[in-house]
Structures are given as structure tokens and as C-alpha cells.
Amino acid sequence: MGTSGRQSTVSFRSLMWREWPIILLAVICLIIATPHFVAAEINESAPPTIQAPSDVEADFVVFGDSQGSFGYVWPVAPVFDNMLRLINEIDVPMAFHVGDFYVGESALAMDVEDQAEYFLNDMAELNITWWPVMGNHDAAGKGWEITKDIIFDTADTYYSFETADSHFTVLDGFMPGYEGRISERQMAWLENDLSENNKPHLFVFVHAPLYSLDDHLGSSMDRDIELRDRLANLLVENGVDVVFNGHEHSYASFGYRGLMQVTTGGSGGHLRGLADFDELEDECGYNIEEVTRYKTIKTLHYVCVKTTDEQIEITAYDLEGNIIDQFSVPA
Asked: How far apart are CA 262 and CA 34, in angstroms?
């Protein structure tokens, strides 16, 4: 696919010139209503320390939820540029963005077409191939068709491809009429895709988690519990090694019922904490006896993945180059 080579057709400068009266009015109203908002966003773009860890090699990087807080000025979070520069310093051939590229359709946002071009201008800074996953912000309102046409080079918003030792499957959990679930057509495609895999490593990407760990409970891939369980069972039965998702603006590694789920929603969207371990049963309704791993931290981050013959090594870094989680999954 190679979307990293795409060039934007709309410059941010021309966009600002065309929209400046609306932008100015909106900013003034926002400053009056919430006096600390703008300062918080500006500070967000310049954390105290930004550095990549040294001597890191990975097969791919995963990150997500780069949407900004105010769609007329920051449809993409300012800090996202910094994250892309860090990833450029890593020895890695490709990346996955697990969705919520930008704010999406909103009364207080520029047109989705312009947001998509703004996002692609940012992504042009990334020196490697990257692969998109449809998020709920990207699909909101009329956004799904627009995002599909501008961001996705594939015929469908769900697709798969292979490297020498890995199979990658990308799902769309926010197709019109199927928000938070997989359509029967996509499910049939997925069953065939997974059954034909002969690679030793198998990864799946979807924007919303199958097992929500915060207030997205009931608005993730669990809107229909029966369909969620059917999807989860299909992934486990076909030996999926890891499912990567965003949607929840934090980091988590969650092993549950034979499935390893890694949540990486820390690319700039407003951070939120996830459930404590003792809340998994009381608040989320999960059987803690079936939990094999659970670690979470509320911070901006990205995830590096390296495969070997014996295992899959997963390391999550914050934007200061610190390891916030590291574990392996047997091959």
C-alpha cells in the first residue's frame, strides 16, 4: 500500500487563509468559555523531554488516536508530529495507525476532507510505509466515505497482507450501519482470511477493543456481546497472536480468554485512565480467573513489535524513551 509516500493537495496555510474568520471567532469563544484550554494544547505539543530510545530494532510500530481537541485549529494533536519524528529514529520498516486520525465531523471542526489532508501532511513526515485502521472519529457522519477515499488505498477498509514471517489483518469496526461490530460480509471474509494463513505470526488490528477497559464499555466491539464473543472465539481458534486496538486513550496489555489485546491509544487524544485490576470484574464484568496479563499506564506512547522464530517481543515506550511495558508472546 505504501501510504507514506502520498502527498497532500491542500496546504495548511491556504486552508487557514480561507477559514480564518471562522477560526478566529471559534478560538475567541473557546478562550472565553474555557480559559485554560488553549494553554493546555500548546503545552501538549512540547513535552519536557522528547527522545527515542537508542538502538531499537522492530518489525513494526503501532500507535493510535492522534485526534486533536479542537477541529478548527488542531484536527490532529500537536504532539503527534513529535511522535512521528521519534519513530523515524527507530530501525523499523512499517507502522500501523489504529484509527481516530483526526477529530472528524463536528460543528466545531473544519471539513473532514481538509482534516484528512491535514493528517496526511503530518504523516508525510514518517519515512516508512504505514497502514490505516478506520476509527469512530474518522467514520462519524459522512466521514467514513471521505476517509475511505482519501486515507485508504485499498478497495475496502478491511484488508490483509503478509511479510516473510507474519500475516496482518486489518478490520473495520465502524462501517456505516455496523458501528462497534463486524458485518456478516466482513466476518465471512475474515474467516476465510484467517483459515488460509500459513505464516507463523498472526496479527489483527481493529480500532475499538473487543474487551473495553474504561468508560467505552458497551461502545467498543462489545455493543453486541454475542457478536463480540463470536469474533473473539474466531481469533483464538485461528491462533491470532495479538490484537492491537486504540479507542481508549491510554496503554494496556490485557490477556483474556486466550486472546492478547494491546491497547495503544496514546498518540495525542485526551488521556484517560483505565480500570484497576480489581475493577475488571466489578466494573467491567470480566472473570479475573481468566485474566492472564493486565498492565496499564496513562501516558503518550507507541508500541514496537519484533518477531523471532521463538516469540513475539512487544515493548511500549513513552515519549521520553522510557519502557512502560515489555513482554513476549510465544510463537
From this structure: 34
pTM of the model: 0.85
Domain 3-330 indexed as CATH 3.40.50.11720: no
3-class DSSP state for residue 30? helix
Report how far apart, in Å, the C-alpha atoms of 208 and of each of 29, 44, 71, 212 are: 32, 24, 21, 8
Q: What distance lies between CA 294 and its chain's CA centroid?
A: 19
Q: What's residue 311's pLDDT?
A: 97
Q: Quick one: cell of 281? A: 470484574
Domain locations along the chain:
3-330
What number of residues does the chain have?
331
DSSP letter assigned to residue 79: H
For every residue of 208-246, DSSP letters joined together read: S-SS--STTTTSSTTSSHHHHHHHHHHHHHTT--EEEE-
CA dihedral for 161, 294, 269, 235, sign (positive or negative): positive
Q: Is 122 within 8 Å of 87 (Cβ atoms)?
A: no
Nearest-CA neighbor of 98 among 186, 171, 163, 202? 171
Contact between 257 and 232 (Cβ < 8 Å): yes
Count of other CB atoms within 10 angstroms of residue 35: 9
Sheet holding 129-132, edge to edge: 129-132, 94-97, 60-63, 301-307, 311-318, 323-330
Consecutive 10-residue averages of pLDDT for the chain (331 residues): 43 47 49 33 37 76 95 91 96 98 93 97 97 98 97 92 96 97 97 97 98 89 96 98 98 98 98 94 95 98 97 97 97 85
